[in-house]
Specification:
By secondary structure, the protein is an all-alpha fold. 70% of the residues lie in helices and 0% in strands.
Length: 106
Amino acid sequence: MVAIVIIVVGIVFLVKNAGWLGNDWDFQNWWALFILIPAFGSLTDAWNSYNAGGRRLSAKAARSLAFGLLFLAITVIFLLKLDWGKVWPVILIVVGLGMILGWRRD
């Protein structure tokens, strides 16, 4: 999983250095890409739990999915320099969905 994140980070830097994104796309929050490591880990765990549970969304899979989406949302917010004042409800939505899905019993 870490290898995939390293490849993605390398591709992003390559695209930026080649100028394919244009000069308007600065890359000051590149460190946010490292938040993808726990995001991909959680999403992978969610997928494995989903498959192990007979393709049924168990509480463990739902929790892992919620955390993965939460980390992914935070990464996107930092990378795109979105205004926290406008997008913070996305975090609440992801947490709420995780709680609803996590309350299901196995």
